[in-house]
Task: structure prediction
Amino acid sequence: MTHLPYIAASYGLALVLTLTLAFNAAWRLKTARTRLATLERGSLRPVQPATRPETAPPSTDTHTS
Result:
């Protein structure tokens, strides 16, 4: 009896898993770069200053000293 089918199957499985992980990593890198480009394009717009309230809100501290 030869062990060739088992050896070929294990090498084939290792190859399929390696290719699957490589393609998944490439796909995730592509989508991450696309999202980063979208975010960077959005940050090129001028930033509007935050509006500040004219008066401070009343304190909720009930402790008097």
Residues 4-42 form the longest helix (39 residues). The two ends are 92 Å apart (CA to CA).
